[in-house]
Amino acid sequence: MAGWHRVTALSLGLLLLFCAWCSGRPAEKCLGGETCRSPRPPVVLIPGDLGNQLEAKLDKPSVVHYICYRKTDTFFTLWLNLELLIPVAIDCWIDNIRLIYNTTTHTSSSPPGVFVRVPGFGKTYSLEYLDPSKRSVGEWTSRGGGQSGGGQPGETARPADRTLCPLQACISSASCRRWWSGATPEMTTSEEPPTTGGKPPVSPHTPRPAAPPAGPSSPPLPSVSPADENKEYFLALQQMIEEMAEKAGGPVVLIAHSMGNMYTLYFLNQQPQAWKDKYIKAFVCLGAPWAGVAKTLRVVTSGDNNRIPVISSLKIRSQQRTAISTNWLLPYAHSWPKDQVLIQTPKANYTVQDYERLYSDIGFQDGWLMRQDTEPLVSELRPPGVEVHCLYGSGVPTAAAYSYSDKFPDVEPAVLYGNGDGTVNLQSAVQCKRWAGRQRPPVTLKELPGNEHVNMLTNFTTVAYIKTVLFSP
Ligand SMILES: *[C@@H]1O[C@H](CO)[C@@H](O)[C@H](O)[C@H]1NC(C)=O
Ligand SMILES: *[C@@H]1O[C@H](CO)[C@@H](O)[C@H](O)[C@H]1NC(C)=O
Ligand SMILES: *[C@@H]1O[C@H](CO)[C@@H](O)[C@H](O)[C@H]1NC(C)=O
Protein backbone atom coordinates (compact mmCIF):
# COMPACT_ATOMS: atom_id res chain seq x y z
CA MET A 1 0.00 0.00 0.00
CA ALA A 2 2.70 2.37 0.88
CA GLY A 3 4.58 2.73 -2.34
CA TRP A 4 8.08 1.94 -3.30
CA HIS A 5 9.24 5.43 -2.60
CA ARG A 6 7.45 5.32 0.67
CA VAL A 7 9.71 2.62 1.87
CA THR A 8 12.23 5.37 2.29
CA ALA A 9 10.07 7.40 4.51
CA LEU A 10 8.76 4.37 6.27
CA SER A 11 12.21 3.18 7.20
CA LEU A 12 13.18 6.63 8.22
CA GLY A 13 10.03 7.15 10.17
CA LEU A 14 10.22 3.92 12.04
CA LEU A 15 13.90 4.34 12.57
CA LEU A 16 13.34 7.64 14.23
CA LEU A 17 10.49 6.29 16.23
CA PHE A 18 12.82 3.63 17.43
CA CYS A 19 15.57 6.09 18.03
CA ALA A 20 13.13 7.67 20.37
CA TRP A 21 12.59 4.45 22.19
CA CYS A 22 15.55 2.23 21.77
CA SER A 23 18.78 3.95 20.95
CA GLY A 24 21.56 3.63 23.43
CA ARG A 25 20.02 0.40 24.68
CA PRO A 26 18.10 2.38 27.26
CA ALA A 27 16.61 -0.58 29.05
CA GLU A 28 19.93 -1.62 30.51
CA LYS A 29 21.39 1.82 30.79
CA CYS A 30 18.46 3.17 32.66
CA LEU A 31 18.02 0.42 35.15
CA GLY A 32 18.38 2.02 38.53
CA GLY A 33 18.93 5.38 36.87
CA GLU A 34 17.24 8.38 38.41
CA THR A 35 15.09 9.43 35.52
CA CYS A 36 13.92 5.98 34.78
CA ARG A 37 12.15 4.88 37.88
CA SER A 38 8.57 5.58 37.04
CA PRO A 39 6.83 2.62 35.50
CA ARG A 40 6.46 2.73 31.76
CA PRO A 41 4.18 0.48 29.80
CA PRO A 42 5.65 -2.02 27.40
CA VAL A 43 4.88 -1.25 23.76
CA VAL A 44 4.03 -3.53 20.89
CA LEU A 45 4.43 -2.06 17.43
CA ILE A 46 2.46 -3.47 14.57
CA PRO A 47 3.92 -2.05 11.36
CA GLY A 48 2.17 -1.35 8.09
CA ASP A 49 2.26 -2.92 4.68
CA LEU A 50 5.87 -3.28 3.44
CA GLY A 51 7.03 -2.28 6.90
CA ASN A 52 9.33 -5.15 7.84
CA GLN A 53 11.91 -7.47 6.38
CA LEU A 54 11.20 -10.75 4.66
CA GLU A 55 13.75 -13.49 4.03
CA ALA A 56 13.69 -16.27 1.47
CA LYS A 57 15.47 -19.49 0.72
CA LEU A 58 15.24 -21.15 -2.68
CA ASP A 59 15.21 -24.63 -4.08
CA LYS A 60 13.10 -24.13 -7.15
CA PRO A 61 12.24 -26.53 -9.93
CA SER A 62 12.68 -23.77 -12.51
CA VAL A 63 13.45 -20.09 -12.87
CA VAL A 64 12.09 -17.39 -15.15
CA HIS A 65 15.49 -16.17 -16.39
CA TYR A 66 18.96 -17.64 -16.47
CA ILE A 67 20.31 -14.97 -14.16
CA CYS A 68 17.89 -15.95 -11.41
CA TYR A 69 19.11 -18.12 -8.55
CA ARG A 70 17.40 -21.49 -8.51
CA LYS A 71 18.83 -22.64 -5.21
CA THR A 72 20.36 -20.88 -2.23
CA ASP A 73 22.06 -22.44 0.77
CA THR A 74 20.80 -19.90 3.22
CA PHE A 75 18.03 -17.37 3.69
CA PHE A 76 18.60 -14.05 1.97
CA THR A 77 16.75 -10.77 2.29
CA LEU A 78 13.81 -10.63 -0.05
CA TRP A 79 12.48 -7.37 1.30
CA LEU A 80 13.97 -4.90 1.17
CA ASN A 81 16.93 -5.44 -1.12
CA LEU A 82 17.12 -2.79 -3.79
CA GLU A 83 19.57 -4.84 -5.81
CA LEU A 84 16.75 -7.26 -6.50
CA LEU A 85 14.57 -4.57 -7.98
CA ILE A 86 16.71 -3.57 -10.95
CA PRO A 87 15.59 -4.59 -14.44
CA VAL A 88 15.72 -8.32 -15.17
CA ALA A 89 16.56 -9.09 -11.55
CA ILE A 90 13.10 -7.88 -10.74
CA ASP A 91 11.66 -10.75 -12.75
CA CYS A 92 13.42 -13.20 -10.43
CA TRP A 93 12.19 -11.22 -7.45
CA ILE A 94 8.59 -11.20 -8.62
CA ASP A 95 8.74 -14.92 -9.22
CA ASN A 96 9.91 -15.45 -5.65
CA ILE A 97 7.74 -13.05 -3.75
CA ARG A 98 4.45 -13.68 -5.52
CA LEU A 99 1.80 -15.80 -3.86
CA ILE A 100 -0.18 -18.55 -5.48
CA TYR A 101 -3.85 -18.48 -4.62
CA ASN A 102 -5.76 -21.74 -4.50
CA THR A 103 -9.35 -21.07 -5.50
CA THR A 104 -10.54 -24.33 -3.94
CA THR A 105 -9.07 -23.92 -0.49
CA HIS A 106 -9.01 -20.09 -0.57
CA THR A 107 -5.49 -20.18 0.78
CA SER A 108 -2.23 -18.98 -0.66
CA SER A 109 1.31 -20.22 -0.74
CA SER A 110 4.68 -19.30 -2.10
CA PRO A 111 5.68 -20.76 -5.47
CA PRO A 112 7.20 -24.26 -5.42
CA GLY A 113 10.63 -24.26 -3.83
CA VAL A 114 10.38 -20.77 -2.35
CA PHE A 115 10.48 -20.55 1.44
CA VAL A 116 9.74 -17.16 2.93
CA ARG A 117 10.06 -16.26 6.58
CA VAL A 118 9.61 -13.13 8.66
CA PRO A 119 12.65 -12.41 10.79
CA GLY A 120 12.57 -10.72 14.14
CA PHE A 121 9.19 -11.36 15.70
CA GLY A 122 9.21 -9.63 19.06
CA LYS A 123 12.36 -7.71 18.17
CA THR A 124 12.83 -4.38 16.53
CA TYR A 125 15.75 -4.78 14.13
CA SER A 126 13.71 -6.13 11.24
CA LEU A 127 11.67 -3.00 11.31
CA GLU A 128 14.36 -0.45 11.97
CA TYR A 129 16.13 -1.36 8.77
CA LEU A 130 14.28 -2.97 5.93
CA ASP A 131 17.59 -3.64 4.25
CA PRO A 132 19.93 -5.38 6.70
CA SER A 133 22.99 -4.01 4.91
CA LYS A 134 21.60 -0.64 6.00
CA ARG A 135 23.16 0.74 2.87
CA SER A 136 20.15 1.59 0.83
CA VAL A 137 18.22 2.90 3.75
CA GLY A 138 21.09 5.22 4.53
CA GLU A 139 21.05 6.56 1.00
CA TRP A 140 17.34 6.91 0.96
CA THR A 141 17.43 8.50 4.34
CA SER A 142 19.69 11.29 3.25
CA ARG A 143 17.62 11.82 0.14
CA GLY A 144 14.61 12.05 2.37
CA GLY A 145 16.28 14.98 4.10
CA GLY A 146 16.03 13.45 7.50
CA GLN A 147 18.29 11.89 9.97
CA SER A 148 21.85 12.62 8.99
CA GLY A 149 21.02 16.09 7.78
CA GLY A 150 19.97 17.12 11.26
CA GLY A 151 16.50 17.97 9.98
CA GLN A 152 13.34 18.30 11.87
CA PRO A 153 12.63 14.59 12.39
CA GLY A 154 16.04 13.98 13.94
CA GLU A 155 15.44 16.78 16.33
CA THR A 156 12.10 15.44 17.36
CA ALA A 157 13.62 12.10 18.16
CA ARG A 158 16.44 13.14 20.36
CA PRO A 159 14.64 14.64 23.34
CA ALA A 160 12.42 11.61 23.35
CA ASP A 161 15.50 9.45 23.85
CA ARG A 162 15.72 10.49 27.41
CA THR A 163 12.11 10.60 28.36
CA LEU A 164 11.21 7.33 26.75
CA CYS A 165 14.26 5.38 27.76
CA PRO A 166 12.76 2.66 29.90
CA LEU A 167 10.34 1.49 27.26
CA GLN A 168 10.39 -2.08 26.24
CA ALA A 169 9.41 -2.00 22.62
CA CYS A 170 8.58 -5.10 20.70
CA ILE A 171 7.25 -5.48 17.25
CA SER A 172 5.01 -8.12 15.97
CA SER A 173 6.22 -8.17 12.44
CA ALA A 174 5.01 -11.63 11.57
CA SER A 175 1.71 -10.10 10.70
CA CYS A 176 3.19 -8.44 7.70
CA ARG A 177 3.87 -11.76 6.12
CA ARG A 178 0.56 -11.72 4.39
CA TRP A 179 0.06 -8.03 4.27
CA TRP A 180 1.55 -7.78 0.93
CA SER A 181 3.24 -10.89 -0.18
CA GLY A 182 5.48 -13.29 1.55
CA ALA A 183 4.24 -16.37 3.36
CA THR A 184 6.29 -18.41 5.75
CA PRO A 185 6.24 -22.06 4.86
CA GLU A 186 5.93 -23.00 8.51
CA MET A 187 2.77 -21.07 8.84
CA THR A 188 1.06 -21.80 5.58
CA THR A 189 1.63 -25.52 5.72
CA SER A 190 0.09 -25.84 9.13
CA GLU A 191 -3.50 -26.86 8.53
CA GLU A 192 -4.33 -27.69 12.11
CA PRO A 193 -6.66 -25.38 13.96
CA PRO A 194 -5.38 -24.06 17.25
CA THR A 195 -6.14 -26.47 20.02
CA THR A 196 -8.44 -24.93 22.54
CA GLY A 197 -7.57 -25.02 26.18
CA GLY A 198 -4.18 -26.59 25.79
CA LYS A 199 -1.04 -25.13 24.39
CA PRO A 200 -1.37 -23.60 20.97
CA PRO A 201 0.46 -25.36 18.17
CA VAL A 202 4.02 -24.19 17.87
CA SER A 203 5.92 -24.88 14.74
CA PRO A 204 9.62 -25.30 15.39
CA HIS A 205 10.78 -22.59 13.01
CA THR A 206 8.26 -19.95 13.79
CA PRO A 207 10.04 -16.96 15.26
CA ARG A 208 8.50 -16.32 18.62
CA PRO A 209 9.32 -15.01 22.04
CA ALA A 210 10.88 -17.46 24.43
CA ALA A 211 8.59 -19.93 26.14
CA PRO A 212 5.79 -17.76 27.44
CA PRO A 213 3.68 -19.78 29.83
CA ALA A 214 0.00 -19.60 28.99
CA GLY A 215 -1.55 -18.03 32.06
CA PRO A 216 -4.70 -19.50 33.49
CA SER A 217 -6.66 -16.52 32.26
CA SER A 218 -5.37 -16.60 28.71
CA PRO A 219 -8.29 -17.35 26.46
CA PRO A 220 -8.05 -19.64 23.50
CA LEU A 221 -8.36 -17.73 20.25
CA PRO A 222 -11.42 -18.82 18.35
CA SER A 223 -10.79 -20.40 15.01
CA VAL A 224 -10.53 -17.88 12.26
CA SER A 225 -11.91 -17.85 8.78
CA PRO A 226 -10.22 -20.03 6.19
CA ALA A 227 -9.08 -16.88 4.47
CA ASP A 228 -7.12 -15.87 7.49
CA GLU A 229 -3.84 -17.68 7.46
CA ASN A 230 -2.46 -15.79 10.39
CA LYS A 231 -3.73 -17.69 13.36
CA GLU A 232 -0.30 -18.67 14.58
CA TYR A 233 0.74 -15.09 14.36
CA PHE A 234 -2.18 -14.01 16.49
CA LEU A 235 -1.44 -16.68 19.07
CA ALA A 236 2.19 -15.61 19.22
CA LEU A 237 1.10 -11.99 19.54
CA GLN A 238 -1.25 -12.85 22.37
CA GLN A 239 1.45 -14.73 24.23
CA MET A 240 3.96 -11.97 23.72
CA ILE A 241 1.54 -9.39 25.11
CA GLU A 242 0.83 -11.54 28.16
CA GLU A 243 4.50 -12.11 28.75
CA MET A 244 5.40 -8.42 28.40
CA ALA A 245 2.57 -7.33 30.68
CA GLU A 246 3.53 -9.82 33.32
CA LYS A 247 7.18 -8.86 33.18
CA ALA A 248 6.42 -5.15 33.34
CA GLY A 249 3.73 -5.53 35.97
CA GLY A 250 1.20 -3.60 33.88
CA PRO A 251 -0.72 -3.58 30.63
CA VAL A 252 0.72 -3.06 27.18
CA VAL A 253 0.25 -0.21 24.70
CA LEU A 254 -0.34 -1.30 21.11
CA ILE A 255 0.85 1.10 18.42
CA ALA A 256 -0.13 0.21 14.90
CA HIS A 257 0.54 1.94 11.62
CA SER A 258 -1.53 1.76 8.47
CA MET A 259 -2.65 -1.79 7.72
CA GLY A 260 -1.29 -2.94 11.06
CA ASN A 261 -4.41 -1.36 12.49
CA MET A 262 -6.65 -3.75 10.61
CA TYR A 263 -4.72 -6.66 12.04
CA THR A 264 -4.83 -5.21 15.52
CA LEU A 265 -8.55 -4.57 15.35
CA TYR A 266 -9.14 -8.11 14.17
CA PHE A 267 -6.99 -9.41 16.99
CA LEU A 268 -8.76 -7.36 19.64
CA ASN A 269 -12.18 -8.33 18.27
CA GLN A 270 -11.30 -11.96 18.99
CA GLN A 271 -10.27 -11.36 22.59
CA PRO A 272 -12.64 -11.52 25.57
CA GLN A 273 -13.17 -8.22 27.33
CA ALA A 274 -11.56 -9.51 30.52
CA TRP A 275 -8.36 -10.29 28.63
CA LYS A 276 -8.30 -6.81 27.11
CA ASP A 277 -8.98 -5.15 30.48
CA LYS A 278 -6.09 -7.02 31.97
CA TYR A 279 -3.47 -6.75 29.24
CA ILE A 280 -4.15 -3.69 27.08
CA LYS A 281 -3.61 -0.16 28.32
CA ALA A 282 -4.34 1.57 25.01
CA PHE A 283 -4.40 1.13 21.25
CA VAL A 284 -2.75 3.96 19.31
CA CYS A 285 -3.89 3.89 15.68
CA LEU A 286 -1.75 5.78 13.19
CA GLY A 287 -3.08 6.36 9.68
CA ALA A 288 -5.55 3.49 9.76
CA PRO A 289 -7.39 2.53 6.56
CA TRP A 290 -10.54 1.44 8.42
CA ALA A 291 -12.68 1.53 5.30
CA GLY A 292 -10.03 0.68 2.73
CA VAL A 293 -8.23 3.06 0.38
CA ALA A 294 -9.03 4.06 -3.18
CA LYS A 295 -5.41 3.61 -4.19
CA THR A 296 -5.74 -0.18 -4.11
CA LEU A 297 -8.10 0.01 -7.09
CA ARG A 298 -5.28 1.29 -9.22
CA VAL A 299 -2.93 -1.36 -7.87
CA VAL A 300 -5.17 -4.24 -8.93
CA THR A 301 -6.29 -2.62 -12.17
CA SER A 302 -3.09 -1.38 -13.75
CA GLY A 303 -0.37 -1.78 -11.14
CA ASP A 304 1.38 0.98 -9.28
CA ASN A 305 5.10 1.58 -9.62
CA ASN A 306 4.84 4.78 -7.63
CA ARG A 307 6.49 6.67 -10.43
CA ILE A 308 9.72 4.74 -10.38
CA PRO A 309 10.38 4.68 -14.12
CA VAL A 310 12.56 1.56 -14.26
CA ILE A 311 9.76 -0.54 -12.88
CA SER A 312 6.91 -1.06 -15.28
CA SER A 313 3.54 -0.76 -13.58
CA LEU A 314 2.10 -3.56 -15.64
CA LYS A 315 4.97 -5.83 -14.71
CA ILE A 316 4.70 -5.11 -11.02
CA ARG A 317 0.95 -5.54 -11.31
CA SER A 318 1.38 -9.26 -11.71
CA GLN A 319 3.03 -9.41 -8.30
CA GLN A 320 0.75 -6.88 -6.68
CA ARG A 321 -2.36 -8.76 -7.68
CA THR A 322 -1.16 -11.85 -5.82
CA ALA A 323 -1.04 -9.91 -2.57
CA ILE A 324 -4.40 -10.79 -1.10
CA SER A 325 -4.26 -7.88 1.29
CA THR A 326 -4.53 -5.41 -1.58
CA ASN A 327 -8.01 -6.76 -2.23
CA TRP A 328 -8.79 -6.60 1.46
CA LEU A 329 -8.23 -2.85 1.31
CA LEU A 330 -10.48 -1.92 -1.58
CA PRO A 331 -12.86 0.83 -0.45
CA TYR A 332 -15.74 -0.44 1.69
CA ALA A 333 -19.35 0.23 0.87
CA HIS A 334 -20.09 1.23 4.47
CA SER A 335 -18.05 4.39 4.13
CA TRP A 336 -18.10 5.27 0.43
CA PRO A 337 -21.12 6.77 -1.30
CA LYS A 338 -22.80 4.04 -3.33
CA ASP A 339 -22.99 6.15 -6.45
CA GLN A 340 -19.47 7.58 -6.35
CA VAL A 341 -17.56 6.54 -9.45
CA LEU A 342 -14.17 5.20 -8.39
CA ILE A 343 -13.02 3.99 -11.77
CA GLN A 344 -14.21 5.51 -15.00
CA THR A 345 -13.52 4.10 -18.44
CA PRO A 346 -15.05 5.01 -21.80
CA LYS A 347 -17.18 1.89 -21.54
CA ALA A 348 -18.16 1.70 -17.88
CA ASN A 349 -18.21 3.30 -14.47
CA TYR A 350 -17.39 1.35 -11.35
CA THR A 351 -18.50 2.14 -7.80
CA VAL A 352 -18.08 0.22 -4.52
CA GLN A 353 -21.01 -1.92 -5.68
CA ASP A 354 -19.35 -3.04 -8.90
CA TYR A 355 -16.29 -4.93 -7.75
CA GLU A 356 -17.34 -8.27 -9.14
CA ARG A 357 -17.76 -6.74 -12.59
CA LEU A 358 -14.55 -4.78 -12.22
CA TYR A 359 -12.51 -7.88 -11.39
CA SER A 360 -14.05 -9.64 -14.36
CA ASP A 361 -13.39 -6.74 -16.74
CA ILE A 362 -9.73 -6.48 -15.71
CA GLY A 363 -9.26 -10.22 -16.16
CA PHE A 364 -8.58 -10.92 -12.50
CA GLN A 365 -11.42 -13.16 -11.41
CA ASP A 366 -9.48 -14.59 -8.48
CA GLY A 367 -9.40 -11.10 -7.05
CA TRP A 368 -13.14 -11.24 -6.46
CA LEU A 369 -12.68 -14.42 -4.45
CA MET A 370 -9.88 -12.79 -2.46
CA ARG A 371 -12.11 -9.82 -1.79
CA GLN A 372 -14.92 -12.02 -0.55
CA ASP A 373 -12.49 -13.95 1.65
CA THR A 374 -11.14 -10.86 3.33
CA GLU A 375 -13.91 -8.30 3.32
CA PRO A 376 -15.78 -9.69 6.35
CA LEU A 377 -12.68 -9.81 8.59
CA VAL A 378 -13.17 -6.35 10.05
CA SER A 379 -15.86 -4.80 7.86
CA GLU A 380 -18.29 -4.47 10.75
CA LEU A 381 -15.77 -2.24 12.50
CA ARG A 382 -16.75 -3.64 15.87
CA PRO A 383 -15.34 -1.56 18.73
CA PRO A 384 -11.97 -2.89 19.88
CA GLY A 385 -13.02 -2.61 23.54
CA VAL A 386 -9.83 -0.86 24.65
CA GLU A 387 -8.83 2.77 25.04
CA VAL A 388 -8.35 4.10 21.50
CA HIS A 389 -6.25 7.01 20.23
CA CYS A 390 -6.92 7.39 16.54
CA LEU A 391 -4.44 9.72 14.81
CA TYR A 392 -4.65 10.53 11.12
CA GLY A 393 -3.18 12.95 8.63
CA SER A 394 -5.30 15.22 6.45
CA GLY A 395 -4.92 17.92 3.86
CA VAL A 396 -2.57 15.91 1.65
CA PRO A 397 -3.82 15.22 -1.90
CA THR A 398 -4.94 11.58 -1.88
CA ALA A 399 -6.02 9.48 -4.83
CA ALA A 400 -9.79 9.20 -4.69
CA ALA A 401 -10.77 7.97 -8.17
CA TYR A 402 -9.19 6.99 -11.48
CA SER A 403 -10.04 7.64 -15.08
CA TYR A 404 -8.81 5.25 -17.76
CA SER A 405 -8.58 5.58 -21.52
CA ASP A 406 -9.84 2.91 -23.89
CA LYS A 407 -6.62 0.97 -23.22
CA PHE A 408 -8.10 0.06 -19.80
CA PRO A 409 -6.82 -1.79 -17.83
CA ASP A 410 -3.33 -1.86 -19.36
CA VAL A 411 -2.57 1.82 -19.14
CA GLU A 412 -1.78 4.45 -16.53
CA PRO A 413 -4.92 6.27 -15.35
CA ALA A 414 -5.58 9.92 -14.71
CA VAL A 415 -5.91 10.46 -10.98
CA LEU A 416 -8.60 12.43 -9.21
CA TYR A 417 -7.54 13.59 -5.79
CA GLY A 418 -9.44 14.05 -2.56
CA ASN A 419 -8.60 14.64 1.09
CA GLY A 420 -6.46 12.30 3.16
CA ASP A 421 -2.86 11.63 4.13
CA GLY A 422 -1.62 10.89 0.62
CA THR A 423 -2.46 7.20 0.95
CA VAL A 424 -5.46 6.77 3.20
CA ASN A 425 -8.60 8.69 2.24
CA LEU A 426 -9.89 10.86 5.06
CA GLN A 427 -13.34 9.24 5.06
CA SER A 428 -11.65 5.93 5.80
CA ALA A 429 -9.26 7.15 8.49
CA VAL A 430 -12.00 8.77 10.58
CA GLN A 431 -14.17 5.66 10.85
CA CYS A 432 -12.83 5.01 14.35
CA LYS A 433 -15.34 7.71 15.32
CA ARG A 434 -17.99 4.97 15.21
CA TRP A 435 -16.65 3.56 18.43
CA ALA A 436 -17.15 6.64 20.55
CA GLY A 437 -19.97 5.90 22.97
CA ARG A 438 -20.20 2.30 21.82
CA GLN A 439 -17.58 0.96 24.22
CA ARG A 440 -16.70 1.69 27.81
CA PRO A 441 -13.05 2.78 27.33
CA PRO A 442 -12.59 6.24 25.80
CA VAL A 443 -12.09 6.82 22.07
CA THR A 444 -10.10 9.89 21.08
CA LEU A 445 -9.64 11.12 17.50
CA LYS A 446 -6.81 13.45 16.59
CA GLU A 447 -6.48 14.99 13.17
CA LEU A 448 -2.96 15.91 12.12
CA PRO A 449 -3.34 18.48 9.35
CA GLY A 450 -0.61 18.31 6.74
CA ASN A 451 0.70 14.95 7.86
CA GLU A 452 1.60 12.46 5.17
CA HIS A 453 0.83 8.78 5.77
CA VAL A 454 4.36 7.65 6.58
CA ASN A 455 5.97 10.92 7.58
CA MET A 456 3.45 11.25 10.38
CA LEU A 457 5.54 8.71 12.28
CA THR A 458 8.31 11.26 12.72
CA ASN A 459 6.12 14.27 13.29
CA PHE A 460 6.73 15.98 16.60
CA THR A 461 3.04 16.30 17.34
CA THR A 462 2.52 12.59 16.77
CA VAL A 463 5.43 11.60 18.96
CA ALA A 464 4.42 14.05 21.67
CA TYR A 465 0.91 12.69 21.61
CA ILE A 466 2.10 9.11 21.93
CA LYS A 467 4.20 10.16 24.88
CA THR A 468 1.18 11.54 26.67
CA VAL A 469 -0.59 8.21 26.15
CA LEU A 470 2.39 6.24 27.40
CA PHE A 471 3.01 8.39 30.42
CA SER A 472 -0.56 8.83 31.51
CA PRO A 473 -1.34 6.98 34.74
C1 LIG B 1 -5.78 -26.55 -4.29
O1 LIG B 1 -5.86 -27.28 -3.10
C2 LIG B 1 -6.47 -28.54 -3.28
C3 LIG B 1 -6.66 -29.15 -1.89
O2 LIG B 1 -5.46 -29.12 -1.17
C4 LIG B 1 -5.59 -29.40 -4.18
O3 LIG B 1 -6.17 -30.66 -4.36
C5 LIG B 1 -5.44 -28.69 -5.51
O4 LIG B 1 -4.53 -29.39 -6.34
C6 LIG B 1 -4.94 -27.27 -5.33
N1 LIG B 1 -4.99 -26.57 -6.59
C7 LIG B 1 -3.91 -26.07 -7.19
C8 LIG B 1 -4.13 -25.38 -8.47
O5 LIG B 1 -2.82 -26.19 -6.69
C1 LIG C 1 -19.78 7.58 -16.08
O1 LIG C 1 -20.12 8.62 -15.20
C2 LIG C 1 -19.98 9.91 -15.76
C3 LIG C 1 -20.32 10.92 -14.70
O2 LIG C 1 -19.65 10.61 -13.53
C4 LIG C 1 -20.90 10.06 -16.96
O3 LIG C 1 -20.68 11.33 -17.56
C5 LIG C 1 -20.59 8.97 -17.96
O4 LIG C 1 -21.52 9.03 -19.03
C6 LIG C 1 -20.66 7.61 -17.32
N1 LIG C 1 -20.20 6.62 -18.26
C7 LIG C 1 -20.84 5.49 -18.48
C8 LIG C 1 -20.24 4.57 -19.48
O5 LIG C 1 -21.86 5.19 -17.89
C1 LIG D 1 3.44 17.99 12.55
O1 LIG D 1 2.05 17.87 12.64
C2 LIG D 1 1.39 19.04 13.04
C3 LIG D 1 -0.07 18.70 13.25
O2 LIG D 1 -0.65 18.21 12.09
C4 LIG D 1 1.61 20.12 12.00
O3 LIG D 1 0.96 21.31 12.38
C5 LIG D 1 3.10 20.36 11.85
O4 LIG D 1 3.34 21.28 10.82
C6 LIG D 1 3.82 19.07 11.54
N1 LIG D 1 5.26 19.31 11.61
C7 LIG D 1 6.06 19.08 10.58
C8 LIG D 1 7.49 19.40 10.78
O5 LIG D 1 5.65 18.62 9.54
Automatic annotation (TrEMBL):
Cross-referenced InterPro entries: AB_hydrolase_fold, LACT/PDAT_acylTrfase
Positions of the UniProt region annotated as Disordered: 136-160, 184-227
GO biological process entries: lipid metabolic process
Gly residues bias spans: 143-153
Swiss-Prot/TrEMBL keywords: Signal
Key word Signal present: yes
Key word Glycosyltransferase present: no
Range of residues in the leader sequence: 1-24
Biased composition (Pro residues): 201-223
Pfam families: LCAT
Biased composition range(s): Low complexity: 184-200
UniProt GO molecular function: O-acyltransferase activity
Protein family: Belongs to the AB hydrolase superfamily. Lipase family.
Protein name: (Atlantic silverside) hypothetical protein
